[in-house]
Amino acid sequence: MKTRDKIVLAALELFNTHGERNITTNHIAAHIDISPGNLYYHFRNKQEIVREIFSLYSNELLERFTPIQGQQESLVLLKHYLDSIFTLMWKYRFFYANLPEILQRDDHLHEDYIQVQEKLQGNLINIMRAFVELELLDVKEDEMKSLVTTLHLIASSWLGYQSAMSQKTQVTEQVIYQGMLQMIAVVKPKATEQGLEQLQLLEDGVKAIHA
């Protein structure tokens, strides 16, 4: 693995474990046993590393939430998107947990974030339309943007909300699963009879994982 990639992966691990604000470039260099000078050869400062991680996150986010073409079983599709939510929130949990702070100190990153989220919202609306066509959801066209915004809001702010509600909240897999259950609860009122059965299966599966 190239040194640049090692730096990014080490930073992601340390940010997730200890919080991005508590980690310096010296911590990252020491973690992979390179000199600070070697790290600075690849990245001028920690913020450049954060931007690189965001680029990886953005690519994975848009890839995972691109509407899937072709015939797929409805439960398989629902599980794919739900698993993607969990994977992203866990893999990049430091970013979700401190989103406002990270964006406020970097205008360039903030601009990139907005552009990515606008693309994501368009993809999510198309995914929602696909679920309507599969007769899993009963959502009118003029309701889709509002529902997508609510789901997006839960996903992007769930970890921050949990931290605000408790002085000792740690980001665990269970906390993320609770966020997924919250999203299922929001969608349920818009589900058809068939869709409700599928959502219930997913909900039971999520609950069983951390029972």
UniProtKB/TrEMBL annotation:
InterPro entries according to UniProt: Homeodomain-like_sf, HTH-type_Tx_Regulator, HTH_TetR, TetR
Molecular-function annotations in GO: DNA binding
Q: Which domain of life is it from?
A: Bacteria
Note whether Iron occurs among the keywords.
Answer: no
State the DNA-binding region(s).
24-43
User: Which keywords has UniProt assigned to this entry?
Assistant: DNA-binding
Query: What region holds the HTH tetR-type domain?
Result: 1-61
According to UniProt, the name of this protein is TetR family transcriptional regulator
